[in-house]
Design brief:
mainly alpha, rod-shaped, 5 helices, single chain
């Protein structure tokens, strides 16, 4: 039909088109049917049958509109799928970034907690050392006071401790206005 139409043999083109029409209408091939209706409209127009040319052109126009609507729907669906895919990819990227941020925050928190535990441990160690040194210092001071006030051989108060004790008792007797009695023994060649 197309070959006859190009050769301007409109009657032959109409014959071929009308012969193919029932087969194409039964099939789901819209593009060949559109092409056939367009050619048939041109062929009817070429022979001057404008009413049939108009009907064929209307059929062509309806099929063209359906094809354009299908293409539009297909394009809209494709764009919708592309948009959803891009949105989901963006959501995935955002979620991955948020996940990475949370992991970094957790790692930072864990690091900070470890440093805090380390600082607390060091503070406890320093405190324990201070307490230990203070206790040892007290023990040392007590031992030094004992050595300074007692005789190593007898374990009795030495001369300096006796003078200090005597001074305290003298001050007490003056304060309470009581008499003070002192006895001194000198043991010769005691050692």
């Amino acid at each position: 039909g197309d070959i006859e139409l190009d050769a301007e043999n409109f009657e032959g083109a109409i014959a071929y088109y009308t012969e193919a029409l029932p087969y194409l209408e039964d099939s789901s091939a819209r593009k060949p049917l559109m092409r056939m209706y367009r050619g048939l409209a041109q062929a009817y127009g070429g022979v001057g049958d404008y009413e049939r040319a108009f009907i064929a052109h209307q059929a062509y126009t309806i099929l063209l509109e359906e094809d354009l609507r299908d293409q539009s729907e297909e394009t809209i669906n494709r764009l919708r799928v592309e948009f959803e895919t891009a949105r989901l990819a963006d959501d995935n990227t955002r979620l991955a970034l948020e996940n990475e941020k949370q992991e970094l925050q957790i790692a930072f928190g864990n690091q900070r907690a470890r440093l805090q535990y380390l600082a607390l441990g060091l503070a406890a160690l320093v405190l324990a050392l201070v307490i230990l040194f203070w206790q040892r210092s007290r023990q040392h001071a007590a031992r030094m006071a004992e050595l300074a006030t007692t005789d190593a051989l007898t374990g009795l108060l030495n001369r300096r401790a006796i003078y200090e004790l005597g001074q305290q008792e003298w001050n007490r007797s003056l304060r309470f206005k009581r008499p003070l009695t002192v006895m001194i023994f000198d043991i010769g060649h005691f050692k």
